[in-house]
From TrEMBL:
Gene Ontology MF annotations: hydrolase activity
Protein name (Swiss-Prot/TrEMBL): Hydrolase
Keywords, comma-separated and alphabetical: Hydrolase
Top-level taxon in the UniProt lineage: Bacteria
Length: 228
């Protein structure tokens, strides 16, 4: 009786094992086992060699670039060539910053030069304005220092006499009575009664009427002229 039970249990176990084997065979026959195994092997090989598909490489580079931008010191070490896009971007930024700095320096230099030119021009205007300005004195109004030349009206056929001088009439108006203190120590009192071709280009020059016999040997002197 016992022998019959044991034999019966063995038959059941063998049948169950056969059924499971049949199910497993059906399952495995529907799966691309070789393709899956080949894909997994290729992925592991690519990971080991450091060669990943293009999409994966791009995603990895984007992630690395973002990490470098947000916290450059947190990503270490940086492998050469892995962050080429980031390196190129940083070079472009450095070049742009250098260009902007050079442009600012050139602009500042040009501004400084323009200010220097304007200052020099203002100083020249101030000097030129102050020179011809009249200065009041106790005896009259000084018109400054003049270049003095001499002429004899009689030699020129003029009957104006020797009491006058020719001058730039915008500086010494016609009819002005002036005192001329010559550089040789001589003092003359004359009236402005004429002008000449020299007056336009040399406003601080006067031509004094004087007989040839009395004209100083130097021929040209300087003098302080005061309107009386």
């Amino acid at each position: 009786m016992s022998f019959i039970k044991i034999k019966h249990s063995s038959i059941i176990g063998v049948g169950l094992l056969a059924a499971l084997s049949a199910v497993f065979a059906i399952y495995t026959s529907t799966q691309p086992v070789e393709a899956i195994a080949t894909s997994d092997a290729a992925t592991r090989q690519a990971e080991t060699a450091g060669v990943l598909p293009a999409a994966t490489q791009t995603a990895a580079k984007i992630t690395a670039t973002q990490q470098l931008m947000t916290a450059p010191n947190a990503v270490s070490p940086i492998k050469p060539g892995v962050n080429a896009e980031f390196d190129a971007m940083m070079k472009q930024r450095a070049a742009a910053a250098a260009k902007a700095k050079a442009a600012a320096a050139a602009k500042a230099k040009a501004k400084a030069q323009a200010q220097a030119v304007a200052k020099a021009a203002a100083q020249r205007r101030q000097t030129s304005t102050s020179q011809p300005s009249a200065v009041s004195t106790a005896t009259g109004t000084s018109k400054g220092t003049f270049r003095v030349t001499f002429y004899d009206p009689a030699v020129l056929g003029s009957s104006m006499g020797y009491g006058g001088i020719a001058a730039n009439l915008s500086v010494l108006p016609r009819g002005s009575r002036v005192k001329i203190q010559l550089s040789n120590g001589q003092t003359l009192i004359r009236v402005v009664n004429d002008t000449g071709g020299f007056a336009a280009g040399n406003p601080h020059q006067i031509d004094v009427a004087m007989p040839n016999s009395q004209i100083p040997s130097a021929g040209v002197l300087s003098a302080t002229v005061t309107i009386l």
